[in-house]
Specification:
The complex is a heterodimer of chains A (about 120) and B (about 110). Chain A is mainly beta. Chain A has no helices and eleven strands. Chain A is globular. The termini of chain A are far apart. Chain B is mainly beta and about 110 residues long. Chain B is built from no helices and nine strands. In chain B, strands 1, 3, 4, 7, 8 and 9 form a six-stranded mixed sheet that branches. Chain B has a three-stranded antiparallel sheet with strand order 2-6-5, with no helix packed on it. Chain B is globular, with a radius of gyration of 13 Å. Classes of the chains: A mainly beta (about 120), B mainly beta (about 110). At the A-B interface, strand 5 and strand 10 of A face strand 3, strand 7 and strand 8 of B.
Chain lengths: ~120, ~110
């Protein structure tokens, strides 16, 4: 069974940094692209970033230059380094596995909440 | 990249059919047959319901179907059931090698 488990969320001050992790199991991790998708409280889904199995990265314009996605294939983990955080980054952050060739996400993790506030 | 346009809410009675539209541009929905649809219950993670416009993952009821015409994709749920009450989001791959979601549609089963 494919499982994705996010961690690392919490309360951080504006301008601060945080690193999210997503531990994967149940599939050959290095064969699959992964994405981070966020959801602000009471709002819709927003795609944030993706990384291919080999490490090519993609970002939404809203986070480019502040958030960095990376992966450690031997550890079956994908990361999201979040710098220069703003109040508008407050959201539940989900990691999701790509279905190869379909540009869709399945499954998703349970999410981790990031709150940016002073 | 602007969000895809979905109706904020739709409703239907049990047994009826409803359709949720998702309008994008020639740079996303219109460019590829790579629209996916997700169901989300309050406080839960999204679940993939449709991919590549009209394909259903294993385990998803055949009451859910997808289609596309031009820059607009649609999700149809037939034989509406109480358990279908949830938020639904469309998502499209874009010509910039990014993804864009719709604003979400709240489905109410009357």
């Amino acid at each position: 069974e494919v499982q994705l488990l996010e961690s690392g969320g919490g309360l951080v001050q504006p301008g601060g940094s945080l690193r999210l992790s997503c531990a994967a199991s149940g599939f050959t991790f290095s064969d699959y692209a992964m994405s981070w998708v966020r959801q602000a409280p009471g709002k819709g889904l927003e795609w944030v970033s993706a990384i291919s199995g080999r490490g090519t990265t993609y970002y939404a314009d809203s986070v480019k230059g502040r958030l960095t996605i990376s992966r450690d294939n031997p550890k079956n983990t994908v990361y999201l380094q979040m710098n220069s955080l703003r109040a508008e980054d407050t959201a539940v952050y989900y990691c999701a596995k790509h279905i190869t060739g379909t540009k869709s996400f399945d499954p998703w993790g349970q999410g981790t909440l990031v709150t940016v506030s002073s | 990249q602007s969000a895809l346009t979905q109706p904020a809410s739709v409703s239907g009675s049990p047994g009826q059919s409803i359709t949720i539209s998702c309008t994008g541009t020639s740079s996303d929905v219109g460019s590829y047959n790579l629209v996916s649809w997700y169901q989300q219950y309050p406080g839960k993670a999204p679940k993939l319901m449709i991919y590549e416009g009209s394909k259903r993952p294993s385990g998803v009821s055949n009451r859910f179907s997808g289609s596309k015409s031009g820059n607009t994709a649609s999700l149809t749920i037939s034989g509406l059931q109480a358990e279908d009450e949830a938020d639904y989001y469309c998502c499209s791959y874009t010509s910039s090698s990014t993804w864009v979601f719709g604003g979400g549609t709240k489905l109410t089963v009357l």
